[in-house]
Amino acid sequence: HKEREQPPRFAQPGTFEFEYASRWKALDEMEKQQREQVDRNIREAKEKLEAEMEAARHEHQLMLMRQDLMRRQEELRRLEELRNQELQKRKQIQLRHEEEHRRREEEMLRQREQEELRRQQESFKPNFMDAREQEMRMGDMGPRGALN
């Protein structure tokens, strides 16, 4: 109890107590500074690691997006190729139909021309029998136009 009743006393400079108290104080101060430095280093290392993680996460997202884009571009290229093949097929079918239509029309025209030529020939035949045909018809008939 007596110690509490008296005011605090400080060691006098140059004494044994003062020297070791100063050394303890310096050691405590050095420990405090080093702990603060370690805390700063750890905090900086954590921040750096978090930044690296964020950059890696961002890079990974970019890689996934690039892969998705490449996949979509490949799918689009494939679809365009299929579309072009389909268009080529349709074009060939159209050309074939047009060619068939042209042939049919040419055939119909040729048949009409042949039919017209045949009609013209038939229309001239009865009126203008050649001499041989007249002889044959006359030869088949006997005197006074009777058939033999």
Automatic annotation (TrEMBL):
Membrane-crossing segments per the record: none
Biased composition (Basic and acidic residues): 89-122
Regions annotated as coiled coil: none
UniProt-listed Pfam families: NOPS (PF08075)
Region listing for Disordered, in residue ranges: 89-148
Superkingdom field: Eukaryota
Domain NOPS residues, every copy: 1-25
Protein known as: NOPS domain-containing protein
